[in-house]
Structure formats: structure tokens, C-alpha cells
Amino acid sequence: MYILVVFAKDGRGNEVDPPLEIYVRVEDVNDNEPVCEHEESVFEIQEDEPVGSLVGQLLARDDDQEGTMNSQLTFAFEPQTASAASSSFVIDEASGRIQSLRFLRRKEQQVYTFSVRVSDSGFSTVCKVVVKVIDVNNEMPLFEKNNYGNHTLTEDSPVGSTVLTLKATDADDPDSGSSLIEFHISAGNDGDVFKVETDGSGVGHLVVAKPLDFESSHTYDLQIDARNPEPLMKGLEYGGESTAVLSVCVTDVDEAPEFSLDILDVTVAEDITKGSVVFKVEAKDPEGKEISFKMDGDSQGWLELDAATGEIRTKEKLDREKLEAFELTVIAFETDNPEKSSERVVHVRLLDVNDNVPKLTETQTFICMQDIKPIVIKAQDGDSVPFSQPFTFAFVKKSPNWELRAIDGTTAEVRLKKKPIKEATIPLYIDILDSAGLGVTQLFEVKVCNCTELGHCYIPPQGQGFKPGLGTIIGILAGVLGVCIIVAVVAIKRSSKKSKKKGLNEEEERNAIM
């Protein structure tokens, strides 16, 4: 519609009348043809959908005046393709809605292509339509045969060995998950000894998944099902065609003895009495044959093995301080066929007992008269915690001239309180106890001497002199005895003339410098 406004004016431009509105309505004529929204309209429908299911709606438009006969559209199958479409689909002539006329099967036809003529009151256009039938899982896997017979394996067949190959097919679309096939052992697989390996293509390989054992089970009656990973269409169930059976027989072989434990760890106190049982290894022959035992690795010769029972006993005293842990190899073999054998490593660890006392690492030293410095003594114990450090140090008898003070768990400091007045060797008796209270009194000798400028004692250390034998001593004594008799007479006469007072004896001298 157009609106025109007309003005009436005189020669001077003045309005002589009010403006006049003129309405002009343009009447539509059918000058536009229908247009398809898509060059090709593609729809999908699952096979076996109920009759009357909506496939899709064809969309088209007309640019003539809306609501008039010029823009009103009608839809109909194009005659050239009507035969292909009309047997399976119907189209609503007013809305363009396409519905199914029957159950569609993908294996019969996967794609339907046809044309629809869209018309107004004067023009028409042809739109292309494609309907794809989508596969559903309405076909079950089928074994090539349902009984695979009997098969034999030796019990020593390695894990991963193939027993047989299974084959099954599925008629569903090969490009969909509905045709993939999985195999499941549904019965007879006690202990999960077997499994089926597959890539989904319909070929499966029955393989050994765990070691076989004739003595445990020698026959397996297996049932294997072929299944799709996707569920079957509603109303369908798997049948006997999707199941296969077979029998696997396991034959016996002469096997080596087997130990009851794979890992053997033994802990024993080092003070265990001689002849005691340390531990017992146990093994049996799968076929029930008589077995014997032998042992290697006892480098110290502490143990002995009973070949018949597997008992290991001590035959010598154990010593943890000499060897704390060691390994033994115990071999079990068939008595009549020693080549059939197996072995286990036994880890033996000795537990410590308090059978060692702390001992000084050094039992003598010296101090310089010119520069008295503290003495550090150190002890060590062959035992381990809690039978070793920290140690306790103490003088057997307190001395006014010496003091003893612990530094840490293994060392102590010995200090001379007074300056010595002469050179001497002083014995110190020290009690050293471990943390459990076990210990002994030990002698520690301190040599008091004059020292060089470098701090070295120049009193020669007392070495061990010549020790004469008994015969030599008797000879010397006999010779000396005669001389002594003569000297004694002279000595007695002279002694009466000397003063009976003496100086400090040796013991008093030692105390004086201490």
C-alpha cells in the first residue's frame, strides 16, 4: 500500500484547502515461484520404525503475498520418482511432512532418493529429497558352527598358547556397532584359565590365560557366547545360534617339586642352642613322588639340613657379630629323578643378644708433666642396639686426683686434677657398662712423663723382655744362691749401722702424684 498526500496552494504558496490523503493499494499477482529451503533435503530413519513414523518435513517458501492463493503451496511426489517413493513414504500435500508407509529394512535398501514438486496457483518447483535408513541391532551374531569338539593340551602349555580359532558373522551394517562381535566364556572356565582374544571382526582366539594344572582340573567344558556391544532391538533375544561349546582336556606331565612358599625369610636369635630347629622348608611333588632336599650357601658351616624332612638345624654356635645375615639355597628334587628339581632362596637374619661387653679401643696413653691435657677414652661393643651404646663410664674407686666425665654414648674424658711431681705409670680401673647394664672392669694405664718440645714422651715404652724358660731360671737361681749367701752375711752387719727409716715406698709415691 502506498499513501499519497495532496496539497492545494495559491500563487503565493498559501494553502487554500486542507491536505488530502490518497491511499493506493497494489494488488498482488502471482509473479514468484516456490523456492526450496535446501538444494537437497536429507532425512534419516531407523529401520523397523513403526508405520506412520515421521521421516521429516520438506521446507519451501513463496515470496508472494502471504495468506493468498499466490503463496499457498502444495506438495506431491514428482511422477518420475513417485514409484520409488510412494511404496515406502507418503507426503502431506499441505505441510510437506513425509511419513513411512511400511517397516524399512536397511539390508533391502539403504538410501531412498526422490523428488517432490512444490506448487502455488501458477508456478512450481522440484525439490530433491534423500532418506537414509539407519541400521539397528536387529541381527544376532551367528557361529560358523556351534560345537567345536574336543581339544587336548599338556599342562605345561605356556600362557598365551592358542587352543583354537572361533568365527562368527553378523548381518547388521558392517559400518555400525551393531555388527561388532565380542566373545565371552559363559560357563566351564573354572579359575579363569582361558580367555578369548578378538578385535571385533568376528574372529576370536581361545588362549591359555593362566598356568594349567592337571592335578587341579584336567577337563574344561566351555560355553562361549557371541554378543554385540550394542543392545539388541527391543523384542529380540540371543538364541542358540549365538553360542558354541567345546571341551579342553589337560594331560599330565612330570613336574618338578613345588615349594609351599615363594619367599622365605627367617629370623633367629644368635644364642639359639646347638641342635635346635631354625626353620623347616616344605615342598611337594605334583605327582606325589618322594622328594629330598639339599642346601647350599652355608659358608660358616653353622647349619645342617635333614634331606628327608627339610628341617634345618644348628650344628655350631651362631655369631651375629661375625655374620649378621646370609642367604641359603634350598633345593627340592625327586628322589628317583634328581633332574626334576626346584629351588628357593632362604634369607636368614640373626637377632642380636647381649653377649659382648664394651671394650676400650686403647688401654694406655701418656700425659706430659709440662702440659697436662684431658685424656679421651673410647669404647666399642660388638652388639647392636639395645645392647650397645650409650655406655656408662665410672672409676671402680673414686680418686681425689682424677675425674671421669662422659662425653657422648661411646667416649669419656679422663682429667688429672693435680700436677704430677714425678714420672710414673698410673693404673686406672674403670667400669664400662652397655645400655643393658652388662660390662666389666677394665685397666687403663696412664704414663706420666717429661715430653719433648713436640709433645712426645721420651721415656721408652715398656716392652716385653726376654722370658726365660724353667730350666734357665733354675740354673740362674742356683748360681745366684751361692753369691747371695756371702752377700747376706755382709749385708746383715751393715744394715744394723744404717737408719731404719725409709723414704716413700713405691705405692706411696704413686699416690703422691695422683
Question: What labels would you give this structure?
Answer:
elongated, four-stranded mixed sheet, 3 helices, mainly beta, Immunoglobulin-like, 514 residues, four-stranded antiparallel sheet
Account of the protein in words:
The protein is mainly beta and 514 residues long. It folds into four domains: 35-134, Immunoglobulin-like, CATH 2.60.40.60; 142-251, Sandwich (Immunoglobulin-like); 258-351, Immunoglobulin-like (Sandwich), CATH 2.60.40; 359-449, Cadherins (Immunoglobulin-like, Sandwich). Helix content is 8%, strand content 42%. It is built from three helices and 36 strands. It has helices at 79-86, 470-495, 506-513, and strands spanning 2-9, 15-24, 35-36, 40-46, 54-57, 60-61, 74-77, 89-91, 97-100, 111-119, 124-134, 142-143, 147-154, 162-169, 182-187, 194-198, 203-208, 219-227, 243-251, 258-259, 264-269, 277-280, 283-284, 291-296, 303-305, 311-314, 325-334, 337-351, 359-360, 364-368, 375-380, 392-395, 402-406, 411-416, 424-433, 439-449. The chain is elongated and about 155 Å long. Mean pLDDT is 85; it is low at 463-480 and 486-514. It holds the Pfam family Cadherin. GO terms for molecular function: beta-catenin binding; cadherin binding; calcium ion binding. It comes from Nothobranchius kadleci. It is a single-pass type I membrane protein.
